[in-house]
Amino acid sequence: MNRSLLPLGELKEGEKGIIRRLSQGDLSLKLLEMGFLPGESVTIEKIAPLGDPISVKVGSYLLSLRKEEANVVMVQQQ
Amino acid sequence: MKKSLKIALIGNPNSGKSSLFNVLTGLRQKVGNFAGVTVDKKTGYLPLSRDIAAEIIDLPGTYSLYPRRIDEYITFDVLLNKENPSYPDLLIIVADASNLKRNLLFCSQIIDLKIPTVVALNMIDVARKNGLAIDVSKLSQELGVKVIPINAREAKGITELKRAIQTAVPVPRHDFVDVRSLAPEMMERVKTISEAKSDYAAFQIACHYINVYCLNPEQKKRIREVLTQFQFAAAKSQGEEIVKRYEKINPILAAATSQDTSKQQSIETTSNIDRWLLHPIWGYAIFLLIFFIVFQAIFSWAEVPMNAIDAAFGWMQKQLQLHLPQGFITSLLTEGLLPGIGGIVIFIPQIMLLFGFISILEDTGYMTRVSFLMDRLMSKVGMSGKSTLPLVSGMACAVPAIMGTRGIENWKDRIITIMVTPLMSCSARLPVYTLLIGLMVPDEKVFGIMNLKGLTMLGLYVLGWIMAFMAALVMKWLIKAKEKSYYIMELPIYRLPRWKNVGITMIEKAKVFVVDAGKIIIAISIVLWLLASFGPANSLKQIDEKYLKIESAGPGIPDEVKLQKQSEKLEASYAGRIGKFIEPVIRPLGFDWKIGIALITSFAAREVFVGTMATIYSVGGDQKSNFEGIRERMKTEQNPDTGERIYSTATAVSLMLFFAFAMQCMSTLAVVRRETKSWKWPLIQLAYMTGLAYLVSLATFQLFG
Own/partner pairs for B635-639, CB < 8 Å, 24+ apart? Predict the structure, then answer.
C-alpha cells in the first residue's frame, strides 16, 4: 500500500482520497481551518462545468475551492 | 440607571449568526461604522430585564481568529484590544451543531482569549435530523463554558440563552490548548510588551503584530526584536496550533456526541440537488431563468410602485405650488427639496426587491452555486462569481446593484464590480436611447423580421456588457490587491429561506440607502436646482418682466408662451451659462450648448435629459407627444453659423454613446460613496467614465461626422 501522493486538484469527479499533508504556508493554514486535516477523507463531488472550481466533500460538509488551491492538499488516492 | 451590557456575536459564516442577531434584536438595529475603517458595524438593542439592557454587536463572520481581510482585522481588534470601544463584556459564539468539528476549532480559539463566553449551539435540529446526538452538558464541561442549544430559525432556546447571559458569566476556566509550550520564553516577552490578557492573545499578537491596530510603533518594534531573537516562524506555529486543537476536539466529539449513521443524509439531498443545479446544461439554464426573474422584477415589477411614487410626488409638488405663496422658499421646497426627496424614495422599490431576491438566494444556499458556475469566467476579468448578480441587476439600475456587491468577500473583486456596474445599460438610459434611436434609425426591417430600431437598442445593451468587461480587465491590472484572497468557501446545504430574515434585510437596506446615500442626493439636487433656477445679475428677472406684460394683457395665456418663457429662463440661468461655457469642449463631439445644458441637468438622473430638451425646445404635452415634439425640433435644428443640421446621424450616435458610458447619475455616485466609505472611488469612477464617454464620442463624431 505504498502509493504515491497526488495533489487533490488532479482527482476526477467521484474519486476519493485520504489527506496526507498540506504543502504551502498561509494557504495550508486556511485549508486546515476549513477542515482539510491529515487523515480525513475527501471526495471530489463536482467539477464546475467550466473546469474550475471544484466542490469536495470533507468530513460532513461540502467545500468549493479552486484547483490551484486544492493542489496544496496532497492526498493518497483510494 | 439601567445596566448596559456589551455583547458581541461571533461565529463562522453560515452558522446562523445573522438569524440569531435578528431574533434577538428584531428591528431595533442600526448600521454604523467601525472607527476609521470601511466596515459596517451592525448593532442592535436587546432589553434583557428591568435592570439590564444589552447592546449587541454583530461581528463579521469568520472561520478562525487569524485575520486576513479588513473585516477580520476588525473582529481581531475588538476581541484583543481592551481600548476598543466595542470591546465586549460578553461573547456569544454561534456554533453550527451540524458542522461541529470545524465550528469547535473557532470556539476553542475564542475560549482561549479569556473573555466571558457563552456558546449558542445553533442548528441543533439539523444535527438531530442527521442522527447526531449531542450531550450538551458534557460538551459544556469539556469546553469549560456554558453551551445553550438553540434553533435560531425557529427562535427556539432563546429564552434559555437570554437567561444564561443575564447571570454573571465567568471567564473560561482553563486554556483549551497550551500554546505557551510552542515557544515559552518568547511568548512571555510578547505578553509583557503587548499587555495581552491571555497566553493565546499574546500568541495571536506575535503572529499578526504588523497589522494590529492596538499596538503602538514602539511595541511593534520591540515585538519584532523578540521574534527575530527567537526565530519565531508564525505560519508553522499556527499550523501546529490548529493541529493541537483538532487533536483535543476529536476526543471531545467522541465523548459528547454519537452518530446514528443510518440517518446521516442531508448532504446527500444537497448533492442530488446539485446534480441538477450545477449541471453543464441544466445548471446554466436554471441560472439564466432565475436571474431573468430577478432582472424582470427590478426592471418591470418595480415600475408599478415607482410610477405611484412619481405620481405622488408630482401631486404634492402641484399642491404646494398652488397653495403656497410664490417666492424663493416655495421654489426651494417644490423644485429643489421635494424632487430631491422623490429622487431618493423612487429607488426604494428596486432596492427592496433586489435585496429580497438576494437574501432568498443567499439563504437557500444558491448564491454560492452561482459563484461555482460563473467563477472561471468572471475571475478572468478580475471579478468573482458573485459579481454576476450585481452586473445583471445593473441592467435595471446601478444603485441597488452596487449595494448588492456586499456579498463579494474579496476587496479587489468588489471594487472592480462596483466600478464597472454603471457601464451596464440601465433603465434610466432607455428614454434617452428611445429619443435618439427614433431620431436617427429608420423604421426598417433587417432580414425581413428584425426591427432595426430594436436591433440598435439590443446593440447598446451588448455594448454595455463588452465595455464593463473591458474596463474590468484594465482595472484588474491597475488596482493593487490589499489582502491575500482565497476562493475557498463552504457550499451550504440547501434550506428554505427564512422569510423574517428576508423582510429584515429588505427594510434594513432601504433604510441604509435613504439615510446614507440620501444626504448626498439631496445636496446635489439642491445644487442642480440652484443652477437651473438662478442666473447672473438679474437676467432671469428681465425675462419675468418681459413676460409680465404679455401675461397681464389678458387671461388665458397660450401654453406656447409659458413654455417659451421657461425655455428662455433656463437659457439665462447658471446652468444655461455653463452649457454655453462648455460648448467649445463638447463641440468636437458634435454637441451644441443646448445639449450642454441637458448634460448638466441630467447629472441628476439620465432620463432628465429628455425633460430638459423639452424645456429648451419649448415642447409641452405628455411624454409621447414630448418625444415627437423634441424629435421634430431636433430634426429642423440648424447651426446658426453654418446652416448645417445639428442633429446629423453622427451627432445622434455620438450622443448615444456618450450616455452609454458617461457617469450621468448622482445617485450612483452617492451609493458608491456609501459602499466604499470614501470619495476616492466615486471620483475615480466619475473621471474614468466621463473620460471614456468623451473619447468614444469624439472618435465617433470625428470619424463619421
Answer: B635/B439, B639/B592
Helix, strand or coil, per DSSP, at residue B184? helix
What is d(CA B593, CA B616) in angstroms, rounded to the nearest whole number? Answer: 11
What is the ipTM metric for this complex? Answer: 0.93
Query: Which residues on chain A are in Cβ contact (under 8 Å) with B64?
Result: 33
B68: distance to nearest CA of chain A, Å? 10
Contact A32 B368 (CB under 8 A): no
Interchain contact, A46 vs B489, CB within 8 Å: no
Residues B608 and B346: their CA atoms lie apart, in Å, by 14
pLDDT digits (tens, 9 = 90+) for B533-567: 888 877 777 888 888 777 776 666 677 777 788 88
* Residues B539 and B612: beta-carbon distance below 8 Å: no
In terms of Cα–Cα distance, which of B309, B368, B319, B320 is closest to B343? B309
B49-99 residue pLDDT tens? 888 889 999 998 888 888 887 778 888 888 888 888 889 999 999 999 988
Task: Evaluate whether B44 touches B54 at the Cβ level (below 8 Å).
Answer: no
Tens of pLDDT, residues B177-223:
888 888 888 888 888 888 888 889 888 888 888 877 778 888 888 88
Domains of chain B: 3-259 (3.40.50.300), 521-704 (no CATH)
CA distance B265 to B263: 6
CB A32 within 8 A of CB B242: yes
User: Which cell is B59 given?
Assistant: 461581528
Does the domain spanning A6-77 belong to CATH 2.30.30.90? yes
Where along chain A do its domains lie?
6-77
